[in-house]
Design a protein that fits this description.
Elements: H1 26-48, H2 55-62, H3 66-72, H4 76-101, H5 107-124, H6 126-133, H7 141-167, H8 177-197, H9 207-223
């Protein structure tokens, strides 16, 4: 069974949104505007860096006015925080998709497919990945705290799914939640290096490395002496 997860962008092309009497309701239009601005912000942050990005540049990238930008975001920091939330939903959604569609697959194989799906999101949304993994570091303390919470959420998801598999007798239990966070941290660092340097050529090539790391953590947990 394939572990590939195909995600499609939810932001329509700006020329395909109906106008006039066929225009969607205001709430839908506002949502589309916000999504389009998020797409544009990711592109601008990735291209120019967070420090040099401006609300005007983001609005121009989205084909909107600066006033429209400020209707949705207080400033570019608020924008990057919202963007990190969207990236988190995409990443966890990809892993959840594997879980839902492959519930009958052996856990280690499913974990492997989840890694592939996670890297697949980064490959499909490179601007989002660069913003979340790299550019957000220069966006101040609230942004760094949000970045930490994103990785903690992904680690928490991995730990919770492993707990379910261990309870069912299908997989060894991770020794601690920090083991899951260690796997996420290694994945983030490997992915960040690939985005910065282009090594390896494709971010998907990191999958075997991360799989070996996760397998090693699980084997270590299985062979560790029981806590007294």
């Amino acid at each position: 069974m394939s572990g590939e997860v195909h995600l499609t962008r939810t932001v329509p092309d700006r020329d395909t949104v109906p106008r006039g009497r066929h225009a969607p309701p205001l709430e839908v239009r506002l949502q589309l505007q916000r999504q389009r601005l998020a797409e544009a912000a990711a592109s601008v942050f990735a291209r120019t860096g967070y420090a040099d990005a401006t609300a005007e540049a983001i609005a121009r990238e989205a084909g909107m006015s600066k006033a429209t930008f400020y209707e949705h975001f207080a400033n570019k920091e608020d924008c990057i925080l919202a963007l990190s939330d969207r990236a988190t939903a995409l990443l966890i959604g990809a892993m959840q998709g594997v879980r839902d569609s492959q519930s009958d697959v052996a856990p280690m194989e499913r974990y492997k497919h989840s890694i592939t799906a996670l890297l697949g999101v980064m490959e499909q949304y490179p601007d989002y990945a660069q913003t979340l993994l790299i550019e957000i570091i220069g966006a101040g303390r609230p942004a760094m705290e949000r970045r930490d919470s994103v990785f903690a959420a992904i680690a928490g998801y991995i730990d919770a799914r492993n707990a379910e598999d261990a309870e069912a007798g299908l997989a060894p239990r991770l020794a601690s939640p920090d083991d899951a966070l260690a796997v996420v941290g290694a994945t983030v660092e490997l992915a960040s290096r690939q985005i910065r340097t282009g090594v390896p050529d494709n971010i998907a090539d990191l999958a075997p490395v991360i799989e070996r790391l996760l397998r090693g953590v699980l084997i270590a947990a299985e062979s560790a002496p029981a806590a007294v």
